[in-house]
Design a protein that fits this description.
By secondary structure, the chain is of the alpha/beta class. It contains 24 helices and 19 strands. The strands form 4 sheets. Strands 1-2-3-12-11-10-6-4-5 form a 9-stranded mixed β-sheet, with helices on both faces. 51% of the residues are buried.
């Protein structure tokens, strides 16, 4: 049950009875006390008790007269929670500049109150319509305005690493861009039509507006600042605005002309006594926050930052927020749960306000019980990915150039889809993560409505040794994916290529007429097993055509099953370490065309990994040399991760425990040397498989040296969930 909403405006403070002198002074409007407190909040130079003092002051100004009645209300008691919907005119930046999420009633911060789950939402008066719940695999666009190893946006990059949990859980289709220009963003929104856009960038405010820094090669410094109006134009695609925008940018929820504490941001006027009356006159002319501007211009849900956020607070907020959204909670409940987790399990709230900085901004038409995502339609797809061996821990990192080269495999237009992608290592392939990469490609294809058939990995001596073995493997995977996805299995004609087949007639189109689904699977499995055991030479000329027809029929059957499959669904064959397919690789390459194993109107792409040095890799090298540069053929290199990508990626993996023997999250200590961390992680040489053991051994050493901090996030989450059941 969603918590009831209490729409609140600001009124005069009540003047707390028996308050300490500092609280009494700020509530009475002492400008010296208020200015000093706000300066310390803004400068992150808090004295002991400042965070509570700030929260108490805001509470007394807004809630004190009605708080006990609110907690006692039957609806609040029944829901064990309440949403405090803060609504004021969009141009009242004095009120918007204060961190109301930090309110404290004298017993506890409201975000962690023992008697109720309290959500603080900023409601923007706007005509923006409420979105509908997403009932398919949501599309998420990750955009960084700089390189992700940039020192200023590094906490945001960590936030982005946590949001990758959506992808790791198989609950979203994602695209990522770094050093993105405004034109890049606009093009991606138009082409990809994301449901959620996550922007990681430098944020800033000036006296007129909130701004975000994006790359721009035409500027002398290589970047430009854009305001909310300009950003909104880039976000709006042909299908409209994204459902939600997440701004991992400092100050993106703060009005222009103000800092994180409201300093230099107010003037006499409509705000609560003791707040706006005590602040300078600049605020009346200050501009709206970037988040509020986006809400006014059509984005219904914005998550932004009122100030700087530490990696620890970001991690705790995001982990709980993402989990709640995945489980189908409303966006209001999810944000409240995330904030509470950050407060209870983060830095001491008496010293820091990081937990209060993430801000949920909603257009006023968004109902408090809106679920952003309905998890039910995608859970089946996630289970299917697990059954097919495509979804594996840990969070995938690296190989960005390879993944970019394979994105066109899902392109709706057949003419833009490559037919053959060979991811090749110029030397030994061991340790480069090629098998994991193929699974990731397959997982992304499945989520976008295609049918990946993963052939391999194979143990010693088990790799295909002739073309019959390759075709048998493809057919077995085709039957498996139909069964896992609940697709009516189509007949097979490729078995006619075997002159000794006795069972080919049992799986023909004529034989399948009137046969139920379960019997079809039995017939198919028996016929393919017979085909795999055969030894007669295959009828080569018709083999490729028959195979293409059968795999096309499989795609048609999937399209009839509905989302995420449709008219553009295609089969993609994935082959692991094909240099080991001694005796089978050369005949397979002989079947490859511009459209893979398919036709111009119905491509069946083939994606393989291989070493060009080992076993039959020389034949693939000759094939590459002959086809390089030709349309439809792509040969990205499989190599260690670049230093910057590896350093960031290793830290992303450490955010997501996936092995029982290493149950902790490892993150940089608050004052740790970034240079030392990067130098330490560089010793792993960008090898993806270092995440199995070497990465964790290094993390434990860095923890002993107090460079890293180890935290049991999963244990904390279990304790959190038990506490508030």
């Amino acid at each position: 049950m969603p918590p009831p909403r209490s729409a609140l405006g600001a009124g005069p403070p009540s003047g707390p009875d028996g308050a300490d002198p500092a609280l009494a002074a700020v509530c009475a409007g002492d400008q010296g006390e208020i200015s000093g407190l706000l300066a310390r909040i803004a400068g992150r130079d808090l004295r002991d008790g400042d965070a509570e003092l700030y929260g108490r002051w805001l509470f007394e100004c807004l809630l004190a007269p009605v708080w006990q009645r609110l907690l006692a209300a039957p609806a609040v008691r029944a829901a064990r929670g309440v949403e405090l919907a803060l609504r004021w005119p969009a141009d009242d930046t004095a009120l918007a500049g204060l961190v109301w999420e930090a309110m404290h009633d004298g017993e506890a911060p409201l975000a962690g109150h023992p008697r109720a789950l309290v959500a603080v939402t900023r409601v923007v008066p706007a005509a923006t319509p409420a979105p509908v719940t997403i009932r398919r695999v949501p599309r998420v666009l990750f955009v960084a305005g700089s390189a992700l190893d940039d020192a200023v946006i590094r906490p945001g990059a960590m936030f982005m690493g946590l949001m990758r949990a959506f992808e790791a859980e198989g609950l979203c289709v994602s695209r990522a861009m770094t050093n993105a220009t405004l034109a890049d963003l606009g093009e991606a929104c138009a082409r990809f039509a994301p449901d959620v856009v996550h922007l990681v960038a430098h944020g800033d405010v000036d006296e007129h507006r909130g701004v975000l820094r994006v790359a721009d090669s035409g500027e002398p410094d290589g970047f430009r600042f854009v305001d909310g109006e300009t950003l909104a134009l880039a976000l709006r695609g042909p299908a409209g605005m994204p459902v939600a925008v997440i701004l991992s940018a400092c100050g993106s929820a703060r009005p222009a002309g103000q800092d994180a504490g409201g300093q230099d941001a107010g003037g006499p006027g409509d705000g609560p006594a003791g707040i706006t009356d005590a602040l300078p006159d600049a605020a009346r002319a200050a501009g709206r926050s970037l988040a509020a501007e986006l809400a006014l211009r059509g984005v219904p849900i914005v998550v932004a930052m009122s100030g700087e956020v530490s990696e620890q607070a970001s991690r705790m907020f995001t982990r709980r927020f993402v989990r709640a959204v995945q489980q189908g909670a409303s966006v209001v409940d999810a944000a409240a749960a995330g904030r509470r987790a950050a407060l209870l399990r983060g830095d001491p709230p008496s010293r820091y306000l990081d937990w209060a900085m993430p801000t949920l901004v909603l257009a006023e038409n968004v109902p408090p019980d809106l679920r952003v995502v309905d998890p039910a339609p995608v859970l089946g797809l996630r289970r299917a990915a697990e059954s097919l061996g495509l979804r594996q821990a840990p969070v995938f990192i690296g190989h960005d150039t390879v993944l970019a080269a394979t994105e066109a495999l899902a392109a709706p237009a057949a003419e833009t889809c490559p037919g053959f992608v060979a991811v090749v290592a110029e030397g030994p392939i061991s340790g480069l993560g090629g098998s994991r990469l193929l699974r990731e490609v397959g997982l992304r294809l499945l989520r976008t409505g295609h049918l990946p058939l993963l052939v391999g990995p194979f143990g010693d001596g088990a790799a295909p040794t002739d073309l019959r073995a390759v075709v048998s493997q493809v057919l077995e995977k085709a039957i498996m994916i139909a069964e896992v996805l609940g697709i009516d299995p189509p007949p097979l004609t490729v078995l006619d290529a075997d002159p000794d087949s006795r069972l080919a007639a049992t799986v023909s189109p004529q034989a399948f007429l009137g046969v139920n689904v379960e019997e079809r699977f039995d017939l198919l499995n028996d016929a393919v097993a017979e085909f795999a055991a055969g030894t007669a030479p295959l009828r080569g000329p018709g083999l490729r055509h028959r195979l293409a027809r059968d795999l096309g029929a499989l795609a048609d059957a999937a399209a009839a099953a509905g989302e995420p499959f449709g008219a553009t669904t295609r089969v993609v064959v994935l082959g692991d370490e094909v240099h080991r397919w001694v005796g089978a690789l050369r005949p397979l390459l002989a079947m490859i065309r511009r459209d893979g194993l398919g036709s111009p109107d119905r491509p069946i792409p083939v994606v393989v990994t291989a070493s060009l040095l080992a076993e039959e890799g020389i034949f693939l090298k000759q094939f590459r040399d002959g086809q390089a540069g030709q349309p439809g053929f792509v040969f990205p290199e499989l190599a260690p991760m670049p230093r910057a990508s590896a350093i960031l990626g290793y830290q992303w993996v450490l955010l997501h425990p996936w092995q029982r023997r290493y149950p902790f999250v490892y993150t940089a200590a608050r004052n740790a040397s970034r240079v030392k961390i990067e130098e330490s992680l560089a010793h792993l040489n960008g090898i993806p498989t270092a995440v199995r053991k070497d990465l964790y051994l290094l993390a434990e050493i860095l923890t002993t040296l107090e460079t890293f901090v180890a935290a049991d996030d999963e244990g904390a989450m279990r304790a959190y969930e038990e506490q508030f059941r």
